[in-house]
Structure formats: C-alpha cells, structure tokens
Fold this protein.
Amino acid sequence: MVCQACGASVVDGVYFCSKCGAQVLAAQPTYAAYPQPPVPVLVPRVQRHLQTLGVLWCAFGAYRFISGLMGMFFLHAFAGRGFGGYDWPFNHSHGVFGQPWMASLLPVIAVYTVVMAGLALFVGYSLLTRRPWGRTLAIVVGILSLLKPFFGTALGIYTLWVLAPGASGLEYDAIADRS
C-alpha cells in the first residue's frame, strides 16, 4: 500500500503513515469481472403519462361524438312518431319528431355534443403535440368531464392527477413544444 498524502510505502494493517502521520485508507477492491448495475433512469410523471393521456382524450372525443349521434337518433325514434316514411330525416310536416318541444331540444343536444367532442379531440391533439397551452386546456376540460359518468369521470381524475400539481406544470413547460 502507499500513503495518499506523502507517497511512502506503508505496511498492510497499519492505519497511520510512519513518515507523515496521515491516516492510511485501505484501497477498495475492484471487481472487474462484475459490471456495475445500470442506474435506473427516472422519467418524470408528466412525460410518462402524456402520450397515454393524449390518446385517451382523442378516444373520448370520438366516443362523445358517436354517443351523441346515437342519442339523437334514439331520441327521434322513441320520443317522436317513429321513423316516419321514406323521407324521415327531412319530413317535418307533422312537426319536428311529432312534438313541439323537440324542435328546440334537438339542436341544443347537437351543439352540445359537437362542442364537447371537439374540445376532447382538441385536448388530445394539444397533449400529443405538446402545445404550451395544452395543460391548461386539459385541466379545464378535465374538470368539465368529471360530470360525464364513468369514462369521463375516470379521464377527468386521471388528467387532474397527472397535470394539476404545480410540479407537473414545471415538467410540462420543460417538454412543451414552443414552436
């Protein structure tokens, strides 16, 4: 062994150098045959979940659009006078779907369906392309989607869990596409 302070040779088992008095540290054995284990790479939470969140928002937008169309279709079938004749969607001679209140209800449902489906698709797009304003939009629409039972509630909770904390805002800003 060699003293790290003065370079004098030191006998094994001695704790202090006989020349300078410095403490002698035993050399650590090297294990060349065994490679060091890899250091795990910690991927931040936002980056880990952002792709999944974007895809789920796009799927939710498509779900909202299709379920809204089906809802309007069945609303006409069950609340109106059936499907009428051969010109069913365009035949309004007996009133819209046979009920006067349906005339104002169907456009409201249609606009609500299109707006909410469009917002969900827009949130999915903004998260997948990492837009700077995507996090804010996702949080707002996530809160609104909490009112849509099951899939909307679960997606809203997941969105808020990933994007709402302050640390998530810093992570999102770091990976946001500023172009």
